[in-house]
Specification:
alpha+beta; Serine Threonine Protein Phosphatase 5, Tetratricopeptide repeat; 4-stranded antiparallel sheet; two-stranded antiparallel ribbon; 18 helices; about 45% helix; globular
Length: about 500
């Protein structure tokens, strides 16, 4: 079921004083205090907070580009993403600016909900759920910020004016931001139900918490959070292929961004990654699968990468062959070279071109199982418990279950390599690969015995000629540096 979104101003409700589209006599001006009167107002403010996740700096475009194009999963000749591809980003690079900006829009909208909705006279259960959902969104936005930029200004109250004292804020440490994320998710999980169609839930909060703790190498906490989801009544969908496009398919979807398919709520990404005529027109695409990734995958036996069937346009023209995760497109009569080769096929462009109605996964149950397996292995080495979780993902992909005697499970390092492999193959193109490579690099820095086949430092060295640790973070955007005299830049930028 597609969520119908109610769009409030981009200024995160701080601009309510100038709005006139909400006709609520006898008010002549709207302020937050005069707006938050009814349950309808509370729901509208929450919808505006969800709306922030649809912005171009999120998974609708730039966060997914940031999470894949620097990695070994994707390449592109498109000039708009060249800095990500070559790891030559600077403080004015579009993705660097847009991810930062739009995450803080989400933070501010969540902060407004958390400040004002508790004052609204309404059903107390629903009011508690609303604040839980707002905490989840704030945590998601701050998690995306801290893993990309390191410590950032930590705002837990809304910016509603323009005074320097309110706007200018120094950076908190990464540890402080992570602590806030964990606190928000812990409270959110307690305030939200296990299931709630199209919205954040208890399972979503615990799944995100597991990812957060894994990123921090808090293995026991990551395993515990993952176990809560495993015990929360969810399961893998029986078919990997049927997961895409997202569109709220089955219990495996723990949280996805909904897109209504209009100029204020459409998904840009499908048109930017698919060949024409699935896309509106032909041009060099974003997030093209690398030849190395295609050769790394088993395109015969692995159901995530094996041939599924032919893909045709509405006209009946053959576009290419679907391999579940990617589309192998061949030249046709009058074809353009931009439309030849492998393309990401986890989005199918369900309509409206650059304002697609395709949803985008943020959290899936398969990741939770892999997180549990990794966290367990990092603490205790190979175990039947870890293999049981990993095998669910492998067997859904048509791969044989591993046993304690399998070569992939003989040592902690061997199982680490196998879990890394399954994460890459399972979640390819979903915006996680670069962030996985970043945490692999940091794990090896923290513990030299923890080796990974590929880390972010390997990719950085390949692209830049040296394994520059400064590129384990993105720079703070120049606009923020210029506008906030209290903020400092990351080293190397």
């Amino acid at each position: 079921m597609k969520k119908t979104l109610i769009y409030l101003p981009l200024g995160a409700l701080a601009l309510l004083a100038s709005c006139n589209f909400l006709d609520k006599p006898p008010l002549t001006t709207l302020t937050p205090n005069s707006f938050f009167q009814t349950s309808t107002d509370a729901e509208a403010s929450l919808t505006a907070t969800y709306d922030a996740l649809q912005l171009g700096g999120g998974v609708a475009q730039d966060l997914t580009v940031m999470g894949e194009v620097p990695s070994d999963n994707c390449t592109s000749t498109n000039g708009d993403v060249n800095a990500m591809e070559k790891i030559i980003w600077v403080s004015t690079t579009n993705q660097v600016n847009n991810v930062y900006r739009d995450a803080f829009i989400g933070v501010n909208r969540a902060n407004i909900v958390l400040k004002y909705v508790p004052t609204v006279s309404m059903d107390t259960v629903r009011r508690r759920q609303i604040t839980g959902e707002a905490r989840f969104i704030r945590a998601l936005c701050y998690f995306n910020l801290v893993r990309a930029y390191g410590g950032v200004p930590l705002r837990t109250t809304p910016v509603e004016g323009g005074t320097p004292a309110e706007v200018n804020l120094a950076r908190s440490t990464s540890d402080q931001v992570y602590a806030q994320v964990v606190a928000d998710l812990t409270v959110a999980a307690a305030q939200m139900p296990l299931s709630n169609p199209n919205r954040a839930t208890q399972n979503a909060a615990n799944a995100l918490l597991a990812r957060v703790q894994l990123t921090q190498r808090n293995w026991a906490a990551a395993q515990a959070a993952a176990q809560k989801v495993i015990s929360g009544g969810v399961a893998l969908n029986s078919s990997f292929t049927a997961l895409y496009p997202a569109e709220n398919k089955g219990g495996e979807s723990l949280f996805e961004i909904q897109f209504a398919g209009n100029a204020d709520g459409g998904n840009l990404l499908p048109d930017e990654i698919l060949p024409s005529p699935l896309a509106t027109y032909s041009y060099p695409k974003f997030n093209i699968p690398t030849a190395e990734l295609i050769s790394y995958a088993d395109t015969v036996n692995d159901l995530r990468w094996a041939y599924v069937g032919n893909v045709t346009a509405a006209s009946g023209k053959l576009i290419g062959r679907s391999h579940a995760s990617y589309l192998d497109s061949k030249p046709g009569t009058g074809g353009n070279s931009n439309d030849v080769g492998p393309f990401v096929y986890k989005w199918r462009s369900l309509g409206n071109g650059f304002n697609s109605v395709d949803n985008t996964y943020v959290l899936r149950y398969a990741e939770v199982l892999l997180t549990y397996a990794e966290a367990s292995n990092e603490q205790n080495g190979p175990s039947g418990d870890a293999l049981a979780k990993l095998n669910q993902v492998r067997q859904r992909a048509g791969l044989a279950a591993l046993t304690a005697a399998s070569p992939q499970a003989l040592t902690k390092q061997a199982l680490r390599n196998e879990i890394d492999r399954q994460r890459r193959l399972e979640m390819a193109f979903e915006g996680q690969r670069w962030f996985d490579l970043l945490r692999y690099a940091r794990q090896t820095i923290a513990d030299g015995t923890a080796q990974h086949a590929v880390t972010a430092l390997d990719i950085i060295k390949q692209q830049r000629g040296a394994a520059d640790v400064n590129y384990l973070l993105f720079p703070i955007p120049l606009n923020e540096i210029n506008n906030n005299p209290l903020i400092t830049q990351n080293p190397g930028f």
